[in-house]
Give the backbone structure.
Amino acid sequence: MDNVNRTIVYVLNLFEQSEYYKTHQEEKQYRLDHTFRVASIGKEIALEEELDVDAVVVGCLIHDISYVNDFTTPEEHKGHGRKSAEIAKDFVESLEMDESLKEQLLYGVAVHVDDKADYEMERTVLIETIGECDNIDRFDAYRLYEGLLYSKLSEKTLDDQIDFCETKINRLNELKKFKFKSVTSNSLWNEKLDYQIEYYKRLHKQLLRSNRDLLTE
């Protein structure tokens, strides 16, 4: 069994054995779906950028495995990248892969949340790509839908809905200033941001038309 298939089995087993996920099935499904989307993005970037595909995909597959535990504090959540690397270290060491690649993918997992680790390494494209894949998925279509649900937009007043869209558009434009490590990551990142910006601009325009005062101006 190759590295990627072994890692898929490893992740699925951890999720199945998780006591937390036994009572949080919806979260379990979301986290698995997110994990496989991030790994798919990683494969696309690795192929385009001529990175080691197995190393990038394995890193993406394990980047969030610490969610098998219940985080009880904000600090635990913020450190979930380092916890994921810690949990997966022995498994990664067992893979048929160059030692340098193992070190890079584990470091990429460790720093993907808050850019911190317990040690330092040279920030290679491979290391940065793991966190970039996570961010790219976080700003794609599903997260847009999820964000609208979380915001309870339908329960807001019209003025608050309009303000909500304006805030989103401003924040997304600020995020476009971030420069990722590779050309492919940058392209995908800006594609996702532009998609959301266009959506919120259209929604903003539609909401403005709900203002009856415009009819009498």
User: Anything to note?
Assistant: DSSP finds eleven helices and no strands in the chain. The first helix runs from residue 3 to 17. The chain has two domains: 3-129, 141-216. The mean pLDDT is 94.
